[in-house]
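Operator note (shift B, R.M.): manual run for U-box domain-containing protein requested after the automated queue skipped it. Running by hand, logging everything below so the morning shift can see what happened. Input copied straight from the record, untouched. If output looks odd, do not overwrite the archive copy; leave it for review.
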Amino acid sequence: MASVASSVKISSIPPAFICSNSKKIMIDPVLSLCGHIFDRVVIQSLVNCPLDNYPINQEECIYLEELKQKNQNYTKGRIYDCDGPFFSLFSLDSLKGWI
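Run finished. Output pasted below as returned.
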């Protein structure tokens, strides 16, 4: 079965909502000191930024609450706009990792 993310055209998603590393919609966005935005779960496994090799310290990353809210609103709007039983069975939280 294809994932939800693969059924959505990546070009239709605002670039600000996409993790710089995983290329998926971020659930918990953070800003690194080098200026790149990653999903928190992705940054936990990084020692250096994959884009510029700058050292990443998780404690120094800035939590982006406003971007998280915008991501959630965007994603919820897309899920509720879809027809079919698959989307009516799952909450947004249960789709973490898929989108």
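Quick read of the result: Residues 18-95 form a domain with the Herpes Virus-1 fold (CATH 3.30.40.10). The longest strand covers residues 29-31.
Leaving this for review. - R.M.
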